[in-house]
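Dear H.,

Thanks for agreeing to be a second pair of eyes. The structure we're designing against is below in token form, covering all 208 positions.
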């Protein structure tokens, strides 16, 4: 792996598997210039009604995803992640339909809410498992019902926790972010790169 050509700032010293089918996580990880494969976990995630706090929920789901794929790919470094939107103790998952999306967006407008991502990195050979949590605060501006409904009708909210995509059309609603933008998208890259560098999974790609 060390001899592969660099197409970004890092090169991998081990095989990497992203335990997620999310195109947003795939793009964020791909921006590092690394080669990796995708193997989405099939086990059912715990949802907002699990009784867990937002922090506990994402850490549990992110670890479960990575652990499932690690059983299949014992030769690779596995990265699992789970993201949720929370308003206080209320967890907002993916909306069921347009009206559910509208309900979430109305609740989030004109106030701060939190986005949590729980990540787990499993490194083969050492039995090493590194889990960490990222938290960002997001302010959604106040828009009228007609604007929110028009956004819902784009169908973008339907596969997004909290019913909006900060990196997509829904970015027009987000006026402030405190913390990691990539965490809000679904994969906190600063924290992840720090873990991968410390573990020797990736190295800076410095050309002679």
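And this is the sequence the design step returned. I haven't edited it by hand at all.
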């Amino acid at each position: 792996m060390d001899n592969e050509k660099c197409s970004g700032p890092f090169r991998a010293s081990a095989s990497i598997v992203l335990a997620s089918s999310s195109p947003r996580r795939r793009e964020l990880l791909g921006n590092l210039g690394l080669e990796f494969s995708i193997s989405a976990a099939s086990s059912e995630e715990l949802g907002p009604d699990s009784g867990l706090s937002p922090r506990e929920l994402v850490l549990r789901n992110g670890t479960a995803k990575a652990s499932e794929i690690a059983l299949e790919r014992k030769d690779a470094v596995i990265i699992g992640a789970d993201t949720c939107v929370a308003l206080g103790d209320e967890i907002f998952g993916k909306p069921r339909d347009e009206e559910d999306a509208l309900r979430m967006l109305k609740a989030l407008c004109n106030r701060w809410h939190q986005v949590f991502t729980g990540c787990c990195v499993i490194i083969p050979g050492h039995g090493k498992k590194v889990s960490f949590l990222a938290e960002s605060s997001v302010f959604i501006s106040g828009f009228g019902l007609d604007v929110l409904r028009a956004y819902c009708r784009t169908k973008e909210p339907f596969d997004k926790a909290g019913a909006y995509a900060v990196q997509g059309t829904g970015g027009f609603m987000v006026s402030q972010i405190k913390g990691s933008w990539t965490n809000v998208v679904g994969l906190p890259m600063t924290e992840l790169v720090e873990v991968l560098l410390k573990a020797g999974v990736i190295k800076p790609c410095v050309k002679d």
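Two observations from my side: The chain has one domain: 10-204. Residues 54-72 form the longest helix (19 residues).

Warmly,
E.
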